[in-house]
Predict the 3D structure of the following.
Amino acid sequence: MTTVSHLLPKDAGAAVPRAGTLPLRSGLGLKPEHFRTILDTLPDLGFFEIHAENYMVDGGPFHHYLTLIRGHYPLSIHGVGLSIGGEGPLDEAHLDRLAALIARYEPQSFSEHLAWSSHGDVFLNDLLPAPYDAATLQRVCDHVDRVQERLRRRMLLENPATYVEFAASTMAEADFIGAVVQRTGCGLLLDVNNAHVSCTNHGRDARAFIAALPLAATAQIHLAGFAQDVDAAGDPLLIDSHGAPIAQAVWDLYRYTLQRTGPLPTLIERDSDIPPFPVLLAEAQQAEALLLAAAEPRTEYA
């Protein structure tokens, strides 16, 4: 039997390497509600992920617990505030704080969103879409180049969940992402839930969308839950809420994705209505079972 490689040390006191890549396992978003449970039980997980903006201070309890947990697990840092798709230049002060955080914890992965969240000095607590055209492509590539230059590492760019499309777009989303990856050398964080949400909202085939992405550049997968509503026309409208269990349709799409990519580090995201830790651990174990299945050698028959 072929098994997924495990970077997570089996000895509770073992130090985790500060360089390299995430293990080909499942992980969870690190939540304050679970700090003590994690340290008391050291669950069998591949990694934890934090939102960078929650740790952009010098000290405090978040850093205290993250330092302890980082001693046992690989770490992924996920940004939400760089505004990669924004019209203005990057916030260099924000980028400096991010660079300091990454130097402090030396995560195995850093990622951000293909979206914008600020305009001038105004920060919007949302991840907003941009048109897929030549001007946006140049701007996004310039921003990704600057981030990678400042951090001295490859970043991953996450496909967004969208609810509207722009008449000004001249490129399909998958083609746009492929062009960014090709021009900047960044990697792809493939959010399978976002793919399902966006394709449902726009009446597209999610499997075809995933197949069109630069899958060879994919270095991490995100899974999450969504909320369901209806739009003004009465059609289904899915909302990337991160506040519900992962839907069966997303699990099915994840399985399809792994068939095309092979095993990849996979994060379970839950940012609202946080359940008890065992509930999230069970979802991580479900993802890990699919990762193990994807690693099994396939036998072809004549």
Notes: Residues 1-14 have pLDDT under 50 and may be disordered.
